[in-house]
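Per your request, structure below.
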């Protein structure tokens, strides 16, 4: 079986490493997988594949016109890769993608095209890497109402928050450390702005509710404005802070958000470093929890190889997503919130329950309110850190 890979960075080289190192064991189980060629962007870059005979190309047509029937997308490009996936699916090739930016932005289009062309579209690695979440959910949705899912879905933010908490360091110092260790990108906006977690909760929720949920409709708050004083304040109240992505379908309405959250539970609040953690609620099992590596070279490649073997052994689930369920997006997220701001607006004043001024900053606990109301009240303020206070998840 010949496959092609698009991208040979961290994850692409991990896929090659597993396929190379485990070739004997795979062969023994009738998985004779050969990488036909690998598409990269910069042909002049020095590469060190384990298989020294691998063919690299920067010419996409070589992949499109090849005989491979499955292509793995581990590129970091958005629009160009999307266009390429379209051509590949139209040419009858199965797609496995770890590229959450593409999978999230074009979730509807990719599922529709996969169905129209009778190919597989597999994206387990796009959410929480090594933690199996997409496939378990795909298997459940026909006989179990999964109506709530909640997760720490961004390892970089979790690394920063848990290290700030543990070491008492500033945001800038921990971010720099994360970048030096390769946990955070040079431009960390997608991670610390909450957008990466937003993409993942969109993928999961779209799948679970078989509904169209637009990225821009998901209320998203990140951790880029957090200060040590916020963690100190949370600690004084008995909480940790973690970036939580949440979605709930209740009474025909979807409530979905990404927001830093004050927590004192034994699961999320005790998720450290770059780990991801997910809790799912279903009609048949009340709830269950999963925790593990949500990123990394072999961790992400592992999920890709699982998708690949499922396709090769005809065990993969054909896409059933068609987004036909129509629900209102409520974005209520009712609860109490913590805010730190140097100024207060009159709109915000109405929502305040407690206000403590420390070193010139207001540390506010709001009355019970909705997130969209609070968002409107802080619109004109600069440099606000906002977190939801959760008594119980
Ligand atoms: N790293 C993780 O832990 C992780 C976890 C889950 C999901 N993901 C997702 O997996 C994908 C790959 O991540 P990564 O960490 O491996 O990224 P990376 O190290 O930056 O590698 C990206 C690869 O994509 C290639 N590429 C980029 N744009 C391309 C284009 N237009 N045409 C052809 N090749 C192109 C690059 O080519 P050159 O080598 O020539 O530059 C490079 O080989 C991303 O979408 C990421 O979001 C990553």
């Amino acid at each position: 079986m010949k496959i092609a890979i698009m991208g040979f960075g961290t994850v692409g080289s991990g896929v090659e490493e597993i396929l190379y190192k485990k070739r004997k064991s795979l062969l023994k189980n009738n998985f004779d997988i050969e990488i036909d060629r690998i598409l990269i962007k910069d042909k002049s870059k020095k590469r060190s594949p384990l298989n020294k005979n691998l063919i690299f190309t920067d010419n996409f047509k070589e992949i499109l016109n090849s005989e491979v029937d499955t292509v793995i997308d581990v590129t970091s490009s958005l629009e160009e890769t999307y266009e390429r996936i379209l051509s590949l699916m139209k040419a009858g090739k199965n797609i496995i993608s770890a590229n959450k930016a593409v999978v999230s932005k074009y979730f509807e289009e990719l599922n529709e095209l996969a169905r129209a062309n009778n190919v597989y579209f597999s994206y387990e690695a796009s959410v929480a890497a090594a933690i199996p979440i997409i496939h378990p959910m795909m298997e459940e949705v026909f006989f179990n109402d999964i109506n709530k899912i909640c997760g720490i879905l961004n390892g970089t933010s979790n690394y920063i928050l848990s290290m700030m908490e543990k070491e008492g360091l500033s945001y800038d110092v921990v971010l720099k450390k994360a970048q030096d260790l390769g946990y955070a990108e040079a431009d960390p906006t997608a991670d610390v702005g909450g957008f990466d977690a937003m993409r993942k909760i969109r993928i999961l929720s779209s799948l679970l509710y078989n509904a169209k949920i637009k990225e821009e409709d998901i209320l998203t708050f990140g951790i880029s404005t957090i200060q040590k004083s916020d963690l100190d304040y949370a600690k004084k109240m008995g909480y940790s802070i973690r970036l939580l992505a949440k979605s709930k379908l209740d009474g025909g309405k979807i409530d979905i958000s990404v927001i830093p959250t004050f927590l004192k539970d034994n699961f999320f609040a005790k998720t450290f470093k770059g780990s991801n953690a997910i809790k799912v609620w279903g009609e048949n099992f009340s709830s269950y929890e999963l925790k593990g590596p949500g990123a990394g070279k072999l961790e992400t490649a592992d999920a890709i190889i699982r998708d690949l073997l499922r396709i090769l052994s005809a065990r993969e689930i054909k896409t059933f997503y068609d987004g036909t369920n129509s629900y209102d997006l409520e974005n209520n997220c009712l609860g109490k919130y913590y805010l730190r701001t140097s100024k207060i607006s009159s709109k915000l004043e109405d929502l305040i329950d407690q206000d403590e001024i420390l070193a010139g900053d207001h540390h506010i606990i709001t009355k019970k309110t909705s997130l969209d109301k609070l968002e409107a009240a802080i619109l004109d303020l600069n440099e606000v850190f906002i977190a939801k206070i959760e008594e119980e998840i």
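The chain has a mean pLDDT of 96.

Regards,
D.
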